[in-house]
Amino acid sequence: MSRRWVVTGAVLVTLSACAGGSGSGGAAESTQPSIGIVSPSVFPTPTGRPPSLAPVAYGPTTLTSGAETCDVELDTATCTVTNTDPRVAGTVVYTWNNEKWGDMFHGSLVQWGRGRLVNSGGAWDGRYSGIWTSGTGDIINFWYVGTGGYAGLSYYMTTEFPQNDLSLQTRGLIFPGTPPTP
Questions:
Q1: Given a cut of 80, is residue 70 above it in pLDDT?
Q2: Residues 6+ apart with CB under 8 A from 109
């Protein structure tokens, strides 16, 4: 099954809502796709284009924001990424893993996976982890390491996707060095 989603902000795809969980800590089957991302009030309404906020340099670091359009499969998503900084724009493929409890009306999950963002200047390889609850929606953090033209740089991105809110936004920071060890 393939679905097309337009999300503002770099995406992390919560490919299924909590559905049919036991509430006792066991993994539950999922039957309904959903998407996970962040919505700070300082960003404009999602349009599928990057927000008008320009990247902000702080010495050797750069604060960014962006948008993604994704094709979602069961446990992967392929997204076209636009961003206020072209170094973190291109195509990204995400994998998705989760452990669920409860159901979509009163439930939670932890989620994790990997992503690879590629463009003509290089690539970003990374990992993410986060949570989803029926009360909060998604809260997800990403850590990427640059390769090719981005060698020596890392990219941290945070996203939230409030429950039943399509204001999909993200913020990230490109910085020199490597991400901390988990």
A1: no
A2: 14, 18, 98, 99, 100, 101, 131, 132, 133
Q: What is the pTM of this model?
A: 0.70
Q: Which residues are CB-neighbours of 167 under 8 A, at least 6 positions away?
A: 8, 39, 43, 45, 46
Helix (H, G, I), strand (E, B) or coil at 180: coil
pLDDT of 156 over the 50 cut: yes
51 pLDDT more than 70 = no
Helix or strand holding residue 160 (H, E): strand 153-161
DSSP string for 30-90: ------B-B--TTSPPP-SS--SPPPEEETTEEEE-EEEEEEE-SSEEEEEEEESSGGG-E
**168 burial via Cβ count (<10 Å: 0-12, 13-18, 19+):** buried
Compute the distance between CA of residue 161 and CA of residue 153 in angstroms, rounded to an integer: 27
pLDDT of residue 90: 94
Domain ranges of the chain: 3-176
